[in-house]
Design brief:
single chain, Rossmann fold, five-stranded parallel β-sheet, elongated
Amino acid sequence: MKELFVLAEHRQGELRDVTFEMLTKGREISQKINADLTAVLLGHSIKEFAKRLAEHAKKVMIIDDAKLESFNAETYQKVLSRLISEHKPLLTLIGHTGFGVDLAPSLATELNVPLATDCIDLDFEAERLVVIRQVYGGKVNVKAVLRKSEKYIVTLRPATFEAQEVPAVGGEIVEVASPLSEDITYKRFLEYVQPPAGEVDITAADIIVAVGRGIKESDNMPMIEKLAETLGGVLACSRPVVDKGWLPSDRQVGTSGKTVKPKLYVAVGISGAFQHVSGMKNSDLVIAINKDSKAPIFRVADYGVVEDLFKVVPTLTDRVSKEKSG
């Protein structure tokens, strides 16, 4: 029976969203090629994670070892190379995160298997793995066929696939002995460095108000920031705003910025170039405010307001504030 691995990613006591996104895509592929879906969980004191993963996969392989408590690409590689060599999964999915970028290339090199990174889709056609990747800053989607192999490794871009809730699978939890016999001393985890106070992670936000070149000048930014605060969200932007130095690069949404999928995305004065849209198209609800009725952003918006943002934003902020105060 064929097998498909999904490497669970967790950090500071939480399973990352990309894990469930990969399990959703992995389930789709495994059903198509008649393979068993297995979640691979590495860490220490992680049995609660295993129970959650068992709701989404036929099997959960758990390797509990104090040496795996914090992510280290070297220890993960030693464990994964052993598991992949023994179980020979047809495909191993890893998130294209800092975690996956550090791990996947070296792992694929050691195992001498084809690797495709930062994929936005994948499938099997005539027993060959086919992936979709973006090139030229997201201007072109490329369909690439990997050489035929018994095993493949792919990293998937976070927020590309929507994690779907499914009836609990009730997968089997299998504890596997750790192959690690000694500590890795040449590469060690030291600490998590938290963002400075006041900074935010827009990828974790439920509500985002994003601003584009339509804001005209930096003196108008407080108006957009007030709307974000009133909605209980965070402020983000398109690339022109970063290029002008009005917001830092960690607030940029798009192919050269971050991919987000909030419950609410309000695009203010953003035309909607595909580079930006690719970073927010999976938002649950998109509201666009732009005076240009032909702006591409309206093609992905659930609701659109064709009007001058300088008229709409203050009115919207005031209305939301009154509704909240009750």
